[in-house]
Amino acid sequence: MKSFELRFEEGAGPAWMAGRVATVFGEAGSIEGQSVAWSRESGAKTSVVAEVGGQLRCAFDARAALEVLRTESYREPAKPVTRFLPFHYHKVPGVLRIKIGQALAAMEKPGFPAWPIDPSGDALRWLLGERGGEWPGGKKFALVLSHDVDTADGMQFAPRLLDIEARHGVPAVYSLVTSTYAIEKKFLRDVLAAGGEIAWHSDLHDNRIAFEDEPGIRCRIESARGFLEEFDVRGFRSPSLCRTPTLLRVAAERFTWDSSIPDTGPGGGCASVQPFLVGSMLEVPLTLPMDADLVFRRRDPKTWPDAWMEKARFIRDVGGCAVLCTHPETHFSGHRAAWEAYDEFLKRVKELDPWICVPRAIAARTKEAA
Description:
Layout: E1 3-8, E2 22-25, E3 34-41, E4 44-52, E5 55-58, H1 62-71, H2 94-107, H3 120-127, E6 142-149, H4 152-168, E7 173-176, H5 185-193, E8 197-200, H6 214-222, H7 225-230, E9 235-236, H8 245-251, E10 257-258, E11 276-278, E12 281-283, H9 291-296, H10 304-318, E13 321-326, H11 336-349, E14 355-357, H12 359-369
Parallel strand pairs: 6-7, 6-13, 6-14, 7-8, 8-9, 9-10, 10-12
Antiparallel strand pairs: 1-2, 1-3, 3-4, 4-5, 11-12
Helix pairs in contact: 1-3, 4-11, 6-8, 10-11
């Protein structure tokens, strides 16, 4: 798919795009007028966005380019090798899985979308007049805290994260796998009592649900009906963020929101820190670096709050939604250094004064605005 790089003229465009580059999928044309943004074709600087008669005009289809990013149609769905194993990949010791992940991360080549910040989708939204920042109470951005409980190990340590959130008086969403380990229902009731939310993280964390056909996906969702109804589950996140158009289409039949698409990585992203609709379902992109991303990049937990805060400030400036995902497992966020990092992040991010909420609250606002 053809693409070009878009840069704003100095002093033009949003302040958060200063010095940044947006990737646009589509054909780059040229336009007359007061140049606002430009691209470089065959070595020549060409105006691709201009102010004409007091209005912005693009020499490309910005709406179509944004749709390419939201649907991730610029890439083929990533298919993790774990789905082909003859046994559940969690049988591989966590320490070994971390070493494999770190080796793979070291071999990654820079590409699109850029990590940890890629403003491409939000630059297109800005050009289309969708400026963001309209959050309750006049807040400049939203913050969603989420945790994926993948295993029994994660179930054991999840209450430690809830304790930290209780100290800060903030809600969070916990995503549970329903056919792998014993779910502590008292813990789930405690989450709800604290204003949090419960989401579904598939029946098995085998990284295969995204690649099932529609009947297969529906069957797996149906297997969790009791859990979904008991805890009024309205949200979904796919294991390892594996996602396909088929999965999202079927998920929209049962869930009001999904959070399986990151803004940048792993395996693609929508390059936007703003929620958007996938049919009737709200997509709430993961926008802060996951603990797994940081572990695979060999970042010491002491540096995690800095990484999260750097991205949170960018999201505040854009007026978007900061979404953090951690995993209570021992090899990710199930240990003291990670708990201290999370506690420090909550202390610091509250100083930015976000609207701290759960995804169902954002979905409700979106429905009311429709």
